Structure formats: structure tokens, C-alpha cells
Amino acid sequence: MKIMIINGPNLNLLGKREPEVYGSTTFEAYFKQLQEKFPKVSLAYYQSNIEGELIDKLQEVGFTYDGIILNAGAYTHTSIGIGDAIRSITTPVVEVHISNTFGRETFRHTSYISPAAKGVVLGFGLQSYDLAVQSFENQ
Known about the structure:
Structural class: alpha/beta
Strand order of the largest sheet: 2-1-3-4-5
Shape: globular
Order of helices and strands: EHHEHEHEEH
Number of strands: 5
Distance between the termini: 11 Å
CATH superfamily: Dehydroquinase, class II
Largest sheet: 5 strands, parallel
CATH topology: Rossmann fold
Helix content: 25-40%
Radius of gyration: 14 Å
Number of domains: 1
């Protein structure tokens, strides 16, 4: 099973950015733990701060991978283009957020990704990614 994790803007700063919200672990360190936890799953990782690059990556892997885990960061609440890209591909997408977006600012309560996603996992810290991987394993 091949799963691509795609992270959006500012998630390259995990471990440094607002540790009270996002924790103190870098995504690279966490990704190694995730690979060890799911040795039978081929996990790949991509991060960009640029909306068009995220759309390009979705289109690139969206017909060949078994699953995509997408944390689009702030683009979740603004990008109709990313939502459209998810609708355009055949690979199922699970939307992930580290924080509980519904416990934060009101503008974070809207997602342009959720209507196109297979499911949504949020509010469990980095473990949200674990749960997303498990959702593909349990298909």
C-alpha cells in the first residue's frame, strides 16, 4: 500500500511554530516514527507553502497511490482549487489537522476540502496522521 502525506503552508515549521498548539516535534522526526509504526505501508511525504505546488502534487500522485493524507493548513479554509483537485483525482484523500479547528478561530470552521475528502481527522495532535493511515489499512 502506497500513501502520500501532503502538508501545506507553515507545517515545515512544526516543532518551532506555536508549540502550545502544534507540539514540539518536527514533522521529519515524527515521519520516521510513523514509518516504523507502519512498516507494511510505503509512506511518502511532501510539503509546500505554495498552493499551486500542492495541487500539482495531488494531480501527480492522485491516480497511482492508494491514499493521500492531506493537511492543507490554512489553505483548507481558502482554497477552492485544492478542493477541486481532490474531486478531479481517483485516489481517496483523508483531510488531517493537528489541532481541533473547531476549537479555534471561526474562519477555521470552514473547509473547502472536507466535502471532497473520504474523511476528516482533527484534534489529536500528530496522532491524527496515525489515525488517517489506519483508515486506509482498514478499508
